[in-house]
Design a protein that fits this description.
Elements (H helix, E strand, L loop, with lengths): L2 H17 L12 H6 L6 E5 L8 E4 L5 E4 L4 H13 L4 E6 L5 H4 L2 H7 L1 E7 L7 H12 L4 E3 L4 E6 L4 E7 L14 E6 L2 E5 L5 H9 L8 E3 L11 H7 L3 E4 L12 H10 L2 E4 H4 L2 E5 L4 E5 L2
Parallel strand pairs: 3-4, 4-5, 5-6, 10-11, 11-12, 12-13
Antiparallel strand pairs: 1-2, 1-14, 2-3, 7-8, 8-9, 9-10, 14-15
Helix pairs in contact: 3-5, 5-6
The chain binds zinc ion (ZN).
Length: 296
């Protein structure tokens, strides 16, 4: 390589490194992210991390910005940290705690300590657990403020890369069940859409349908670990997903996923993937086609 060209590459690499959350500087060198996942630069990538019984999704946007939705239990958080480090990401631009149950927020405090986190979103659902208090304390120690997750909120969008991320729920101010406070997130990249349901149940699904919220998506992170209390036939029809991801642990105490839920999903004809069977599931899109890769 001529010296001038080499300098140009280094300058370009450093520029990219400065602006992106993920270490795309590696794109100029032999990089194990590409080798491992076979994914192309400029795609939207969604990792459904195997955190045992719990939930955690890490999303890399086409411009390198990143989002983390939940981080499983405290033990699950270790898996989340491991994956983000492996991907060479240093910063989480958008962190979403769907609702304050320990199988979703248990690992978040350690993640927040480990990485540079920009915006944090949580629904206004208060609970008195040690896990929740520890999370709030950790956020405060980092001098961060929490944005209240609410239906109709735009988290981010890019005209240049043609993507957006919005919060569809919570619709109401209060719910009886903490699960229904779940921040429901819709991410769009060009013609493809990814829906993340948290632990939202039937009540929220009905609210979304009543409000005529556009829930149509290609890929969905199934609500509440495949519990029978979520995934009504009517809702699944409105979503019309081709890929359904279940996040849960093997032989869990709740009997997730429930048989009825699996049957309802089967009827839709969607391809189903389970983290208890497949490990971490990676779904990527160039905006037109979708690719699924699994750990096992
Ligand atoms: Zn849960």
């Amino acid at each position: 390589m001529k010296l001038k060209k080499a300098i140009a590459v280094v300058i370009a690499a450093v520029t990219v490194f400065m602006f992106c959350s993920c270490e795309t500087i590696n794109d100029f060198f032999e990089n194990d992210l590409k080798v491992e996942s076979g994914l192309d630069e400029g795609n939207l990538i969604s990792y459904y991390i195997d955190v045992g019984q719990g939930d955690s999704e890490f999303i890399i946007f086409p411009d390198g910005k990143t989002m983390l939705i939940d981080a499983g239990t405290r033990e699950g958080g270790e898996q989340v940290i491991k994956l983000i480090n492996k991907l060479g990401c240093k910063k989480i631009d958008f962190l979403i705690a769907t609702h304050p149950h320990s199988d979703h927020i248990g690992g978040l405090a350690d993640v927040i300590k480990e990485f540079d986190v920009d915006k944090i979103y949580m629904p206004k659902a208060v609970t008195q657990t040690k896990t929740y208090e520890y999370l709030l304390q950790t956020i405060q120690n980092k001098n961060k403020k929490i944005k209240t997750a609410k239906a109709g909120m735009n988290i981010t969008n890019s005209d240049e890369f043609d993507y957006s991320a919005d919060i569809l729920s919570p619709v109401s101010d209060s719910y009886e069940d903490l699960n229904n406070y779940s921040a429901v997130v819709m991410i769009r990249f060009k013609n493809k859409k990814f829906l993340y349901m948290g632990d939202a149940e039937k009540q929220v699904e009905n609210e979304l349908l009543e409000n005529k919220t556009d829930v149509n998506a290609d890929v969905v992170k199934v609500g509440h670990h495949g519990s029978r209390t979520a995934s009504t036939a009517k809702f699944l029809k409105a979503v019309g997903a081709k890929y359904a991801v279940f996040s849960l642990g093997k032989d869990n105490d709740y009997g997730h996923p429930h048989k009825q839920t699996i049957a309802r999903w089967e009827k839709t004809g969607a391809e189903m993937y389970r983290t208890d069977q497949k490990g971490t599931i990676t779904i990527s899109t160039d905006g037109d086609s979708i690719k699924v890769e699994t750990e096992k």
